[in-house]
Write a structure and sequence with these properties.
alpha+beta; binds coenzyme A; 34% helix; 7-stranded mixed beta sheet; Aminopeptidase; 39% strand; single chain; globular
């Protein structure tokens, strides 16, 4: 497994993060969204290979729940198992904080991300109609959850 360097995001990193965000998403977050997350105190992690930034995650904690607001691998490094490693880091961090559930929204059309989540033990909990902007109107989101007490997750760890 590739060894990722992990550290928390700082304001000075936002420009580089936003550059990856724009490359990786049809409807990227704004630079201000990342600044707001740092100001609000959300957990924001950067993942690097050697000294190259290859991805990030943004997590909001609400009591014993966490909401995975953003997870991204830069396009040049996608499909190499790094997204799965980043998600594992998010789950490990949640387990250390005694979190009981991880929630996230994913575009109905984002099959790649859904496959990652389903294969990690996330379940589809509901559909949020018209949650995201899309090229033609709006697109639904799947609300997905990983119950950290569930047998499926224990199976994932094995
Ligand atoms: C979604 C994302 C984080 C996955 O990261 P990644 O490094 O590309 O994914 P990995 O190589 O770790 O693969 C994880 C799983 O994703 C799925 N996957 C990866 N590439 C895929 C492809 N081309 N087609 C379909 N599924 C794919 C597979 O299930 C894969 O597991 P497997 O290799 O064991 O079969 C990354 O593609 C990304 O940043 N996309 C743009 C931003 C985004 O969509 N974020 C999620 C928002 S909810």
């Amino acid at each position: 497994m590739t060894e990722l360097n992990i550290r928390e995001m700082q304001h000075a990193d936002v420009g580089q993060v936003w550059s990856i965000e724009k490359q990786a998403n049809r409807f990227p977050w704004s630079r201000g969204n990342f600044e707001d997350c740092l100001r609000t105190g959300y957990r924001t992690f950067l993942y690097s290979l050697d000294s190259e930034l290859i991805g990030y995650s943004v997590v909001q904690s609400i009591l014993d729940e966490i909401h995975l607001l953003n997870i991204c691998v830069c396009p040049a490094h996608q499909g190499k198992g790094l997204g799965r490693q980043i998600l594992s880091h998010v789950i490990d961090t949640a387990l250390q904080q005694n979190v009981t559930i991880i929630l996230l929204e994913v575009r109905a059309s984002n099959v790649r991300a859904q496959r990652l989540y389903f294969s990690t033990g996330f379940n589809e909990m509901s559909v949020r109609k018209g949650y995201y902007p899309a090229e033609q109107g709006r697109e639904d989101a799947l609300l997905m959850g990983l119950d950290l007490g569930m047998t499926e997750f224990e199976q994932y760890l094995l």
